[in-house]
Specification:
Layout: E1 8-13, H1 17-28, E2 42-44, E3 51-56, H2 58-67, E4 72-76, H3 77-83, E5 90-94, E6 102-109, H4 118-128, E7 132-136, H5 139-149, E8 154-158, H6 166-169, E9 174-179, H7 183-187, E10 190-201, E11 203-208, H8 209-214, H9 216-236, E12 238-246, H10 250-257, E13 270-273, E14 282-290, H11 294-303, E15 306-313, H12 323-332
Parallel strand pairs: 1-3, 1-4, 7-8, 7-9
Antiparallel strand pairs: 2-3, 4-11, 5-11, 6-9, 6-10, 12-14, 12-15, 13-14
């Protein structure tokens, strides 16, 4: 409970891919969210009895966390940077939750064959002789980008809904919008500028700074979330590899393993003796490697005589203290 006798509140997106992925994240970290009625905007986490989940629009989540009506929130970093102010009332607890990835880009009509960069766009505007009309749902980020990277005179046209049609109907000259796969752009005969990336965005975890500073229970939930989320995301990128290796001693195997680039392990390989029926000197080697390096790990194990290679997923990797937790504790002292 908070000092005003309400539950600790965690705001999540109410619909869409970001909502589904956020629910999945809580399930994966062992804190499944229970919502008996999908039409209700309040749910609970049975394993966090002093907390409740509030479903909101992504933009409203930023405002709610900033104002303190909720304590935590997950939203896209694009929305966070657009909606947040400079008051310092929000802490970004984790900036890379690994889903909802997209880029905010400057987008122009495909028929503008001579316009591929910001310099090209500047020449187009000079020939046009009037301010460049920029349609966007992100007026703050768009204006900051153009002020920082160009001397272009622009007119920001704030819009909602599908922006792709704006250049075609003359509502705007260009748009600044989110792009994930690029399929929608191609379908609407649009293209990204080569140097027009405004922001790389993905889901992020936010918290109200004052709540963490003044409410021990809220701070304890923050620590729990950072521990679980961090361990899950680290484990998600890794796999555990086991192999049997014939050798005279653990030291002999270690001398073969440590020079290898992949199978040297996190701090080093785990090596243990196998009790064979015939007394053959076999040892079990256990290492944790990046998923994309699996084939290289198998090759390196074979190079030192490894056989019977077994691969298992890694659910969590807990560090001594996650970097995000260290950063949070330091920020709370400011």
């Amino acid at each position: 409970m908070t000092p005003n006798n309400r539950n600790i509140r965690i705001a999540l997106p109410s619909k869409g891919l970001l909502a589904d992925a956020s629910l999945q994240l809580f399930a994966e970290i062992g804190l499944p969210i229970y919502s008996p009625n999908p039409r209700q905007y309040i749910a609970r986490i049975p394993l966090l009895p002093n907390a409740e989940v509030i479903f909101q629009r992504p933009g409203d989540i930023v405002i709610s966390v900033r104002d303190g009506s909720v304590d935590f929130g997950i939203t896209g970093s694009d929305i966070f940077y657009e909606k947040n102010d400079d008051s310092g009332r929000i802490l970004t607890l984790h900036s890379q939750l690994g889903y909802g990835k997209c880029t905010l880009n400057v987008i122009v009509p495909d028929e503008w064959a001579e316009v591929d960069t910001l310099d090209d766009l500047t020449r187009w505007q000079a020939a046009c002789g009037r301010p460049l009309r920029v349609g966007t749902k992100f007026p703050r980020l768009a204006e900051q980008f153009f002020v920082k990277n160009t001397a272009l005179p622009i007119q920001i046209i704030q819009a909602e809904g599908a922006l792709e049609i704006a250049p075609t109907i003359g509502y705007a000259d260009i748009i600044v919008d989110l792009v994930s796969t690029g399929t929608t752009l191609r379908d609407n005969r649009l293209k990204r500028l080569q140097d027009g990336a405004v922001l790389e965005a993905q889901a992020c975890l936010l918290a109200n700074k004052a709540a963490l500073q003044n409410q021990p229970d809220t701070r304890a939930v923050a620590i729990q979330l950072l521990e679980l989320v961090g361990a899950y995301l680290r484990g998600k990128r890794k796999i555990a590899v086991f192999a049997n290796v014939r050798a005279g001693s653990e030291e002999e195997i270690a001398q073969k393993l440590l020079p290898k680039t992949v199978i040297s392990g996190l701090q080093g390989p785990t090596v243990s003796r196998i009790l064979t029926r015939d007394g053959e000197p076999f040892f079990s080697v256990h290492v944790v490697v990046e998923k994309e390096l699996l084939h290289q790990a198998v090759r390196e194990l074979r190079q030192i005589g490894g056989s019977g290679v077994v691969v298992s997923p890694v659910s969590y990797i807990f560090e001594e203290e996650p970097l995000e937790l260290t950063q949070m504790l330091a920020a709370l002292e400011e």
